[in-house]
UniProtKB/TrEMBL annotation:
Keywords: Hydrolase, Plasmid, Signal. GO terms for molecular function: hydrolase activity. Residues 1-17 form the signal peptide. The keyword Hydrolase applies. Residues 108-278 form the Dienelactone hydrolase domain. InterPro entries: AB_hydrolase_fold, Dienelactn_hydro, GDXG_lipolytic_enzyme. This is Alpha/beta hydrolase. Pfam families: DLH. The keyword Hydrolase applies.
Length: 300
């Protein structure tokens, strides 16, 4: 997610947009730039009668809300031979479980990640119903960013269920998609990082990630699954949502004997996935790429 100042762009008028481009306050956007998407099976049903909607945060930042059909977007990797077996990374965007930051924490990260020798997928998991239309979405954003309302823990199981379905889907298509089924990881941002953690903690036998990454996500807790996978975690000290958490989760992960890489940046705020700030948090992706190589996930 980008920070509040930029979210205000959602509420701007259509000045500068092409005539007729805005419909009920939502700027229509083109389909995601992926060659293929697959629907994920739903194991935890939820009724969401409102139709899916997209909003344009800035000209290059799109958000999707009222997601009621989970999908896995297959990112076309043009840097790998089509038949080479490679590790897979499933990106899990954030958005307070009320929307998904599809560019900042999805497509833009995928463009960088494909060059690391991995096959990239973007998880479009179900979000909280926020009502029908842009006005309802705008009100939900105001609660999340202006009033600082908390997301209830019982909203998380749906995102976790969809993430587990994504892991199962990738492994079941490993031969078709030329993936090493023993190198399937998940990388989440904000609410997506919360989802990554909860998915790993659930430790489902058929949906365990082989490596996990959390970008501006939780750092507090003691619940570490048995045989925990390698963990990569980054956060800025001035993160508005998680800055008050201690580092007990990282300590517990280390104490379990599992591998941990952690970077605490002095500044960077929240939402720096693909948005340079001129702070050391800008280095997070390069450090993640080195971590993948150091853990023998890439480079084979």
């Amino acid at each position: 997610m980008k920070r509040l100042a930029l979210i205000a762009a959602l509420w701007a008028t259509s000045a500068g947009a092409a005539p007729g481009a805005w419909v009920d306050g939502v700027l229509p956007v083109t389909n995601p730039p992926v060659s293929k998407s697959v629907d994920l099976p739903v194991t935890l049903p939820r009724d969401n009668p409102a139709p899916e909607g997209w909003a344009q945060q800035t000209p290059d930042q799109r958000l999707v809300y009222n997601v009621n059909k989970p999908q896995l977007l297959l990112w076309p990797n043009t840097t790998l031979p089509a038949d080479r077996q490679a590790p897979a990374v499933i990106l899990v965007p954030g958005g307070g479980f009320q929307f998904l930051a599809m560019d900042n924490e999805g497509f833009d990260v995928a463009k960088r990640l494909e060059k690391q020798g991995v096959r990239v997928f973007i998880l479009k998991y179900r979000t909280l119903p926020v009502g029908n239309g842009f006005a309802a979405f705008k009100q939900a954003l105001a609660g999340l960013f202006q009033r600082g309302e908390k997301v209830k823990d019982d909203d998380r199981p749906f995102a976790v269920s969809d993430t587990q379905a994504a892991i199962r889907m990738v492994r079941s298509h490993a031969a078709q998609w030329h993936i090493d089924p023993a190198r399937v990881g998940i990388l989440g941002f904000s609410a997506g990082a919360m989802t990554v953690l909860a998915t790993t903690q659930a430790n489902a036998a058929d949906a365990r990630p082989d490596f996990v990454g959390m970008v501006y996500g939780p750092t507090q807790g003691t619940d570490v699954p048995a045989h925990a996978p390698p963990l990569f975690s980054v956060i800025a000290a001035d993160d508005r949502f998680f800055k008050d958490q201690d580092l007990s989760l990282l300590h517990a992960w280390r104490q379990s004997g599992a591998s941990v890489e952690f970077h605490l940046y002095s500044a960077g705020g929240h939402g720096f996935a693909s948005q340079p700030n001129g702070t050391t948090s800008d280095a997070w992706f390069d450090q993640y790429a080195l971590w993948l190589k150091d853990n023998k996930i890439t480079g084979k």
